[in-house]
Amino acid sequence: xxxxxxxxxxxxxxxxxxxxxxxxxxxxxxxxxxxxxxxxxxxxxxxxxxxxxxxxxxxxxxxxxxxxxxxxxxxxxxxxxxxxxxxxxxxxxxxxxxxxxxxxxxxxxxxxxxxxxxxxxxxxxxxxxxxxxxxxxxxxxxxxxxxxxxxxxxxxxxxxxxxxxxxxxxxxxxxxxxxxxxxxxxxxxxxxxxxxxxxxxxxxxxxxxxxxxxxxxxxxxxxxx
Length: 225
What we know:
Layout: E1 20-22, H1 28-45, E2 51-58, E3 62-69, H2 72-76, H3 81-96, E4 112-119, H4 127-139, H5 144-156, E5 163-170, E6 179-186, E7 195-206, E8 209-221
Parallel strand pairs: 1-2, 3-4
Antiparallel strand pairs: 2-3, 5-6, 5-8, 7-8
Helix pairs in contact: 4-5
């Protein structure tokens, strides 16, 4: 069997960086669990906002959450009301869980929560947004081969994309035996660490079962300065 490694984790501190970073102090396990809670909560309530990535930055008394979205208007709302509502929901979610106190039973230091929204101008060069689009098409019962071909063509129309691979697995088109199918167009040097590959995986919940989706988008090579 081959040893499969996530393309981003394979390139950490080379051409990629961590999604969660900052100062944790003595309560690293507590704050790390809190980060997973925040990420899962945001992805659940912002399903319609086309969220591509969520980054969290820690400091002594501040928590900065960076949300990359193709539809930032749905998150911001009128006059920024959406951001304030989202901030209150995060605070309540953190307070309702056991995470409101640390392992010693002491209350955590109150931290200021800041939410930054970044707009993704071209969703077709984001692997997560392409995977979400493919999931929406499969849930509408569009044949998977048609979805793969449409996705390849739309991604390769952009100059930034040098290559793309889209893979689906499961009970494709509702057949009884699950299998895996993929289409590849352009270059995809997955053995080269300096290759800038945007990778994402997503799931489509169909009436006949769950279809797994994986997307690789190759954007050229990165070299350390």
